[in-house]
Fold:
Amino acid sequence: MFGLAAIQPLPQETPPLAEVRLTGITTFGGKRALLSIHLRTATVTGVVTVGQCVGSVTVLAIDEAAGSVTVDNLGTVMVLKLGGNTREHFTVRRAGA
Structure:
């Protein structure tokens, strides 16, 4: 009668992934990962164990022998390796895949 259309939901914007760099691994006092996380507005560093979070990044596993740390970055699982954050130093897969 009035020519009204159904309201379309707004698209859900996914926040950008934080840039995560593995800066070190220590086993002094237990396995710990040294992370540098570059967010949109700031850089946060942390020394974390498995299960701990820094911002939106959660540490899932630490493999000191391989020099790698597995993290969950907003639902994206990343395997970070010592030596940088170039494409050959990390792999990405969606959680649950």
